[in-house]
Design brief:
The complex is a heterodimer.
Chain A lengths: L18 E3 L6 H7 L28 H5 L7 E3 L5 E5 L8 H13 L6 E5 L4 H4 L15 H28 L6 E4 L2 E4 L4 E4 H8 L7 E3 L39 E6 L7 E6 L1 H4 L4 E7 L8 E6 L2 H10 L1 E5 L8 H9 L7 E6 L2 H7 L4 E7 L11 E6 L4 E5 L4 H12 L6 E5 L15 H15 L6 E4 L2 H5 L8 E9 L5 E10 L9 H4 E2 L2 E2 H4 L8 E9 L15 H19 L3 H8 L4 H14 L13 E11 L2 E12 L2 E12 L6 H20 L5 E2 L2 E2 L17 E6 L17 H13 L15
Parallel strand pairs in A: 3-4, 9-19, 17-18, 21-24, 27-30
Antiparallel strand pairs in A: 1-8, 2-3, 5-6, 6-7, 9-12, 10-13, 11-12, 14-24, 15-20, 16-17, 16-19, 20-21, 22-23, 25-26, 26-27, 28-29
Helix pairs in contact in A: 3-5, 5-6, 11-12, 16-20
Chain B lengths: L1 E5 L2 E5 L7 H8 L18 E4 L2 E4 L12 E3 L8 H12 L9 H14 L5 H8 L9 H14 L4
Parallel strand pairs in B: 1-5
Antiparallel strand pairs in B: 1-2, 3-4, 3-5
Helix pairs in contact in B: 2-3, 2-5
The chains are: A alpha+beta, B alpha+beta.
Bound molecules: FE2/S2 (inorganic) cluster (FES) (2 copies).
InterPro entries (chain A): Ald_Oxase/Xan_DH_a/b, AldOxase/xan_DH_MoCoBD1, AldOxase/xan_DH_MoCoBD2, AldOxase/xan_DH_Mopterin-bd_sf, N-heterocyclic_Hydroxylase, OxRdtase_Mopterin-bd_su_IorB, TAT_signal
GO molecular function (chain A): oxidoreductase activity
Protein name (chain A): Isoquinoline 1-oxidoreductase beta subunit
């Protein structure tokens, strides 16, 4: 998902308090209907601690349920003085639960310790994302940008109603009351009441028509350096609930045999050996469809038994319609397009003609492999189909899309599909699949199981190997850039051809995100923020049959590498320091330049690196990229000894507007850098005759702690509206690293992953 | 029939003795804090303690745990070192998605029990079997040092 517009409001950038219309009230009845699914006796909250009795209205109108104060879709206050924030976004590690809670709790003047968070169910009317046309989902690093005003208003409305309840009860003017840390006080009389004590009376107050939001100088929680994540506790004692951990009465677990190549079809299956395993309940063949795989599922109560059963199946596959090519052949096909003009993404001046006449043209090709997301929790999904409805438990990143796709498959209406939110053990984009692949697979499987008499909840579980080979990879890309300098050492012309599979074609996003044959996500971030009079960028989007998808920071994963590598080559050509070259070429973009300068300054750019021991060679590289409206610059320090690379240190500067939770911002930069480093150093999905060769973490090797550099993060103080941090830490890493290797050794690496390219 | 001691409680298991301990814990004993990440001893998400030794539950037959004390993340707080580690993890907000963190905490606790003041190199050596795809490694290092420093002096 890509944000196509910047936040248009001005709440955080203004220094004056604002008057805004209040959020629509929601009746308690509608609320209870909305959370009706909670009353199945199973904890589906984000953590077990969120399932204390008062937070789970039973639908039976219990006394506690009746006194929960619930002024809008996002805030609930219980009589036992807990503030529950309902998060419309998936928590997959990026800290969004903490961010959303901070925003609401700020305006509420709640005590941070009384605040907990629950995931919202699928319901676009209440939990739609304004930045993606009202559909509910998480992506494009836009949770804070899309929510910061909404969540503050939700908190402010609740606060106003609590205050007016106290005023009414104490018969004092509203203006004489103050609120701090979850307590409403009347200074004159010394009266005090907690939110919990006021909850019932607050529920009887009218929803305010106008709200006064805080002046940013009065923020107590927003911007605080160390607030404490709301999910730390449950994630350090084993109680946090992931889809993998869900168990419902009579639930069966399914492990599936799939075709080895994309597009393969089942020819025959002999399940006798599988059925003979103690504990195997049944074997179910189920259909694939557009965007999702079918296969043969083995059902059992225990995951291990299901897996044993799956491994005992004897299957034959029909490969006649399957993908036959390997990665090498696909890249060779890409190469045939290098000299053919593509769909024009950007055209200013006349780069082609200028380059034809230019004295010295710097030309380079950059190659990128398919990449798997390889989230720590392999994909999974729990489904209960009934006659008139379907219930799903999932680390759910794409509610509206999944709801619609599931409804279509089952012949239901979207509102008959309930989706319960759980934590996701990572995603990096994988859990937001525009075709709902693993969700539909689980539903198709559950439907087939039901037809065989298993009217019980079914949990699809992918083994690591299934996850690695399921496709929906970051596409393979090839870029060619040709550029030349003008006589003053600026960029005269830039011509870029981008070749790679479209992640948008064939998805519901095609009408908005592909224009004139250009998939915006394939070229985003190609050549921006540097001055050049002549720029030409075009694109080929060959169809390969390999399922592809966005992967943390999407197009920027490759466009930043091509851009920032070529900029470095141009700096070398000009004989100018790479940082100074960028600074000068970014003269018209002060915000970008400031980020670049901050990273360089903190990294000690320009001062000599401490020399390595013996034959060790050391170097520093720099890169900068704006993505998802945030700007990040990184300086990487490396040591290379006998062809062995060590990444010592990464200094990162980020401008993400107002930093709601600075420590979460730092964590996302650290994590984004580590995630990017894993891919830059090691990772590639390799196809051979249409089959993925990598299976598990010994062949697709994730970064480990012994390879993790020291990371320093510096946040630009900014009053601008908040922008994303989940993805923007990723793009600058790989080019800064390649540039550091060049500085150390003189070797330009233009193909990822780079460890394989490194010369001894 | 196997007799097992899980988090100090005696329990029995009548199923396949070759089933990995992880699936006994998760699917039979209802202790879902230990995670499945790879099933091949490659990621450490399933790390538990057997008599205090960090062990990959995904490749350890449940029969091999008989007669030994099995400790999982759900009970690591009963060990003062484990409790300290959890506190350091919370203080530094190590977690992101959290899926690997039970295993990280179990591995870190075992490290600190055998080496109360580990260097960065010790930490790298002891913890490199535990993958974190969210790459929380910098904070893992810091939290281990923090727990080492805040350990009650014997
Ligand atoms: S699940 Fe046991 S090491 Fe990965
Ligand atoms: S916190 Fe997500 S894998 Fe470690």
């Amino acid at each position: 998902m890509r944000i196509l517009e910047r936040f248009s409001g001005s709440v955080a950038s203004t220094t004056a308090a604002l008057e805004l219309p209040a959020p629509a009230n929601l009746s308690r009845r509608a609320f209870l209907q909305g959370v009706g699914g909670l009353a199945v006796g199973v904890c589906i909250g984000p953590a077990l601690s969120a399932c204390k009795p008062a937070s789970a209205p039973s639908g039976g109108g219990s006394a506690t349920a009746a006194t929960v104060f619930e002024p809008n879709a996002f805030v609930r206050i219980t009589p036992d003085n807990r503030v529950i924030i309902v998060a419309k976004h998936l928590e997959m590690g990026q800290g969004t639960y903490t961010g959303l809670a901070t925003l609401a709790a700020e305006e509420l003047d709640a005590d941070w310790d009384q605040v907990s968070v629950e995931g919202a169910p699928a319901d676009a009317k209440r939990y739609g994302n304004a930045q993606t046309g009202g559909s509910q989902g998480t992506g494009g690093s836009n949770a804070m940008a899309s929510s910061h005003e909404q969540m503050r208003r939700a908190g402010a409305a609740a606060r106003a109603m609590l205050v007016s309840a106290a005023a009414q009860e104490w018969k004092v003017p509203v203006g004489s009351l103050t609120v701090s840390k979850g307590v409403v006080s009347h200074a004159e009389s010394g009266r005090k009441a907690t939110f919990g004590e006021l909850a019932e009376a607050a529920g009887k107050q009218a929803v305010p028509e106008t709200l006064v939001l805080k002046d940013p100088k009065d923020f107590k929680l927003i911007g605080q350096q160390k607030l404490g994540r709301k999910d730390s506790s449950g994630k350090t004692d084993g109680s946090a609930m992931f889809t993998q951990d869900m168990k419902l009465p009579d639930m069966l677990v399914a492990v599936v045999a799939y075709a080895p190549s994309f597009g393969g079809k089942l020819k025959s299956v002999d399940a006798a050996k599988a059925r003979a395993i103690t504990g195997v309940v049944d074997v179910v063949q189920f259909d694939g469809g557009t965007g999702y795989r079918g296969g043969v599922a083995v059902l059992a109560k225990n995951t291990w038994v299901a897996r044993q059963g799956r491994d005992a199946l004897v299957t034959e596959w029909d490969d006649s319609a399957a993908l036959k090519l390997g990665s090498t052949e696909l890249m060779a096909q890409y190469r045939t397009l290098l000299d053919k003009p593509g769909a024009v993404a950007k055209h200013e001046g006349d780069a082609v003609a200028v380059l034809a006449k230019a004295g010295k043209v710097v030309q380079a090709e950059y190659e990128f492999p398919h990449l798997a997301h390889a989230a720590m929790e392999p994909m999974n999904c729990l489904v209960q189909i009934r006659d008139q409805d379907c219930e799903i438990w999932n680390g759910e990143q794409f509610q509206t899309v999944d709801q619609a796709n599931v409804a279509k498959l089952l012949g239901l209406k979207p509102e008959q599909v309930t989706i319960h939110q759980l934590y996701a053990g990572g995603s990096f984009g994988r859990r937001a699949n525009p075709k709902s692949d693993y969700v539909l697979e689980a539903v198709s499987l559950a439907k087939a199981a039901r037809a065989q008499g298993h009217k019980v909840p079914v949990k699809l579980v992918w083994m690591r190997e299934d996850d690695m080979r399921a496709g929906y990879f970051r596409p393979m890309f090839l870029h060619r850039v040709r550029a030349a300098l003008d006589k003053d050492g600026g960029i005269l012309a830039w011509e870029q051809r981008v070749i790679g599979e479209s992640i948008i074609k064939g998805t519901p996003f095609e009408p908005f995100m592909i224009k004139d044959g250009v998939d915006h996500t394939s070229v985003e971030g190609c050549f921006e923020h540097y001055a050049a009079a002549n720029v030409h960028i075009d694109l080929h989007s060959p169809e390969t049959g390999v399922p592809v998808q966005w992967w943390r920071s999407v197009g920027h994963t490759h466009t930043a590498f091509a851009k920032e590598s070529m900029i470095d080559e141009l700096a070398a050509q000009a004989g100018v320091d790479p940082f100074e070259f960028r600074r000068k070429a970014m003269a018209d973009h002060p915000r970008h330049r400031a980020v670049l300068e901050l990273a360089a300054e903190k990294a000690g750019w320009g001062t000599p690196l401490k020399p390595g021991e013996g034959k060790a060679r050391r170097g520093r590289g720099i890169a900068v990229q704006e993505s998802f409206s945030s700007i990040v610059a990184e300086v990487v320090e490396v040591t290379i000894t006998d062809g062995k690379l060590r990444v010592d240190r990464v200094v990162c500067a980020v401008d993400c507007g107002l930093a709601i939770n600075p420590d979460v911002v730092r964590a996302q930069m650290e994590g984004g850098i580590g995630f990017a480093l894993s891919a830059a150093l090691h990772n590639a999905i390799t196809l051979d005759k249409g089959a993925v060769q990598e299976t598990n973490f010994h062949t697709y090797t994730p970064l480990r702690i012994n390879e993790m550099p020291v990371i320093e993060v510096h946040i630009v103080a900014s009053p601008e509206p908040p922008t994303g941090v989940g993805e923007p830490g990723v793009p600058p890493l790989a080019p800064a690293l390649a540039n550091a290797i060049y500085a150390a050794t003189g070797q330009r690496i233009r193909k990822l992953p780079l460890v394989k390219q490194l010369k001894a | 029939m196997l007799k097992l001691n899980v988090n100090g409680k005696e329990t029995v298991f009548e199923g396949d003795p070759s089933m990995p301990l992880l699936w006994f814990l998760r699917d039979e004993a209802g202790l879902t804090g230990s995670k499945f990440g790879c099933g091949m001893a490659l990621c450490g998400a399933c790390t538990v303690h057997l008599d205090g030794q960090p062990t990959r539950a995904c490749v350890t037959p449940v029969a091999a745990a008989q007669g030994r004390a099995i400790t999982t993340i759900e009970a690591v707080h009963t060990d003062p070192v484990g409790k300290n580690v959890q506190a350091a993890w919370r203080k530094l907000d190590v977690v992101q998605c959290g899926y690997c963190q039970s295993g990280q905490i179990m591995a870190a606790t075992a490290l600190l029990k055998s080496n109360p003041a580990p260097s960065d190199a010790d930490i790298d050596a002891a913890m490199s079997g535990n993958v974190c795809r969210c790459a929380t490694y910098q904070r893992i290092r810091a939290a281990i040092h923090d727990a080492a420093q805040s350990a009650p002096k014997a």
